[in-house]
Description:
This protein has helices at residues 3-20, 130-141, and strands at residues 24-26, 31-33, 36-38, 47-52, 58-65, 68-76, 82-90, 100-110, 113-123, 148-153. With 156 residues, it is an alpha+beta fold. An eight-stranded mixed sheet has the order 1-4-5-6-7-8-9-10, with no helix packed on it. The protein folds into two domains: 23-89, no CATH class; 91-156. It starts with a helix and ends with a strand. It contains two helices and ten strands.
Amino acid sequence: MGSSKIKNLLLILILFQIVGCKSSISNKDVVVKAGLYFTPSGNPVNGDIIYRFANGVVSGKYAVRNGIPDGEWCSCGYQNEIINCGSFKPVNFKGGNKNVLRIQEFNFSERTYHNSTYIVIIRGQIPLDTLNLINSLRAQNGLDNRPMEFASIELK
């Protein structure tokens, strides 16, 4: 292989690494509006949100795409050891209630304990009759029988 081909190959590999790298932002610089995560300039966060202890050691991070938690997350101890980890995965929401903003699959692991649930982000107050809401969401969105938790946000 000629030296110009090697240089071109190296350039292509470097470009792949640059394009493939995720950006990161400190949680202190994130603006939360209506349950979505934005940069100070108003763009949706795309990358990792990094949390730090007072001494600067990373205490956790999670992946966000288009302002919505989407991907892996982890929490770390003071020696940078991983305490627990998991993932967020948005569900393709098809309906079931006009006040539901989104549904996220939430997976959690700590040592030998594993849990998976759905988090339902809802506008305003959570209805008292959550059983009917859960049944409606399961039927219209093809969700399995994992537990559902509700989080309420106010839109301003």
